[in-house]
Amino acid sequence: MSKQETKPVELSLYKAHEKIYPREIKGRFQFKRKLAVFILLGLFYFLPWISWEGQQAILFDLPQRRFHLFGLTLWPQDFIFLALMLIIAAFSLFFFTALAGRLWCGYACPQTVWTEVFIWLEQLTEGNRNKRMKLDNGPWNSEKIIRKSSKQFLWIVFALWTGFTFVGFFTPIKELAAHVMSWTLGPWEGFWLFFYALATYGNAGFLREQVCLYMCPYARFQSAMFDKETLIISYDEARGEPRMRGKKRRETEAPGDCIDCTMCVQVCPTGIDIRDGLQYECIGCAACIDACDEVMEKSGMPKGLIRYTTENALNGKPTHIFRPRTIIYMIILLGLVSAFVLALFGRSSIDMNVIHDRNSFYRIVDANTIENVYTLKIMNKGTTTAQYQVSASGIEGLDVVLGMHETVIAAEPGQLVIVPIKIQADKQQANKKIQTIEVTVNQVGDDNAGEAASEKVKYFGYKK
């Protein structure tokens, strides 16, 4: 017998990526998504150009270590507000995910928002879904080169505008525009402009759904925030099955409502089939709902074959949107937001700290007077030069001595002033080893006059 030659078999462990061509669809949810895109992008691109009291409304001035937010100036000492904002963002994500699934991903995530714009530009230059597929599968000719080049040109321009706007939140955008026009960009400004433009171009133009599927951690841990009463986008299998189309459907006595048109798959930006059940790839954009409702309406069947529902509702059980989990999240979220607002609007422009001298507890000035020496630190968190007066209370007759001729302390905006102060008291009043006094810093002058900050410290007295 002759030996048969066998050919080696190549086995790939990874499936090659297939480009997704989402179909354009109209509907109530897609209208809301487009509205969200316009609002969010409008805020991003136009807020840096708004002036507020002679200053860019939102500016993160890193070299000067201050953040301007609509007339409010925050300094590194106000880091607590950033921490609160991050905690609020986290609990907002928990609350809305437990309530209605991936609302963030479908309507507000930057990846989703910018991908929508890049898809619109692609549709503008290459046409609808069928034309794009035909163009990609066809040979390279003059039409294909023109359409592809036009798309790339629009993508690059939009990405550069995005990078420019991003840097404009950290460098005054009008100054940045002048630098761009005169080709005098600094090294860091130029790096971040092109880096953010490249990130936008790559993520929204090429990676698209791959960012959601493989790079975003939220897709992996979202199930921990879901339960059987979370609103999700789901296909009603009991109503839709058995799915069939055409002649087979007409010959069947009781076909399901699903006519197997695959429109729900064609409009999905991540390319999944929602009829296969809840999947982590679903970003909750609701495009499949709008597509299916349109098909149901044309077929003369009731809408809602694919809809927002809950697992309990699909199984005929009662659903409670507001339940212990969502109520607890909501209470915590409202508490955090209230604390943030109160702290922000009740924020003082004075930050102070008083440290007792470590070299001696007290000094004897004369037969009737003793003094304690402290280091006073005053931070001016305002936007103008401020002057401060220092006083002390807690022991009768306390007197604060600043210096030889000083009566007030002056500080520039954002300046930390460190001065030694002496607090003198009568021996008869300061007759205990340790007493508590309060040091108060009062702002004087025209701007924010009357604002004050205080701190309690130990005062060491004279006892025979």
Keywords:
single chain, 464 residues, alpha+beta, Immunoglobulin-like, 16 helices, 16 strands, elongated
Question: Care to describe what's here?
Answer:
The protein is of the alpha+beta class and 464 residues long. The protein has two domains: 16-347, no CATH class; 350-460, Immunoglobulin-like (Sandwich). The chain is 42% helix and 19% strand. It is built from 16 helices and 16 strands. The strands form five sheets. Strands 8, 9, 10, 12 and 14 form a five-stranded antiparallel β-sheet that branches. A four-stranded antiparallel β-sheet has the order 13-11-15-16, with no helix packed on it. Helix 1 crosses helix 4, helix 2 (79-100) runs antiparallel to helix 16 and helix 6 packs across helix 8 (187-207). The radius of gyration is 33 Å and the shape is elongated. The mean pLDDT is 90.
Task: Present the secondary structure layout.
Blueprint: H1 28-46, E1 51-52, E2 55-56, E3 58-61, E4 66-69, E5 72-74, H2 79-100, H3 103-108, H4 110-126, H5 129-137, H6 142-168, H7 173-181, H8 187-207, H9 209-215, H10 218-221, E6 232-235, H11 237-240, H12 246-250, H13 263-266, H14 287-299, E7 306-309, H15 311-314, H16 324-345, E8 350-356, E9 363-364, E10 369-380, E11 386-393, E12 399-401, E13 409-411, E14 416-426, E15 434-444, E16 452-460
Antiparallel strand pairs: 1-2, 3-4, 4-5, 6-7, 8-10, 9-10, 10-14, 11-13, 11-15, 12-14, 15-16
Could you estimate the helical fraction of the residues in percent? 40-55%
Would you report the number of β strands?
16
Percent of sequence in beta strands: 15-25%
Class based on secondary structure composition and strand pairing? alpha+beta
> Mean pLDDT score, rounded?
90
State the separation between the terminal residues, measured CA to CA: 120 Å
Shape: elongated
- Figure out the total of helices: 16
